[in-house]
């Protein structure tokens, strides 16, 4: 899939109230992962991806009712849905100067019903041209997302026959419809009702 860069390069390094990569917890986590990676950008990106994928529980898998959306809160509570986990990973990557975009898929149940927007990120390939999509959602039986920059290993390959699709946009900030749902939901059951069904 050809991805479309929506903004100038610098926008994919920006901090805001969602991707708060200046927050002490984000910086501390990034520093620890950077040291583990030996200061290598590729190794750091892989370590950050695996950290978010494996140590921040997807709240639907764990049964946690809390709704998180700010990167530092996701890292503090170690819980969040796909969008929240994407925010945390973007903050960690941007904290070390790695351009990171937000991407979206439209996914559905096996019969094509209950379409919902799924969030992931794209990383500007360290030392190479182009972007690579990564999905830190969290693995479970039937879901095996991996860190690869040469071929995608996402949590959910789309099924066009069911109306699923990959949105090609590379967004510098989380989509406003996603943030409205996350910020306006008191718990995960309410969030499920509020999540957008498309862009």
Automatic annotation (TrEMBL):
Domain Transglutaminase-like per the UniProt entry, residue ranges: 39-136
Source organism of this protein record: Streptomyces goshikiensis
InterPro entries, A to Z: Papain-like_cys_pep_sf, Transglutaminase-like
Coiled-coil stretches: none
SUPFAM superfamilies: Cysteine proteinases
Protein known as: Transglutaminase
Domain of life: Bacteria
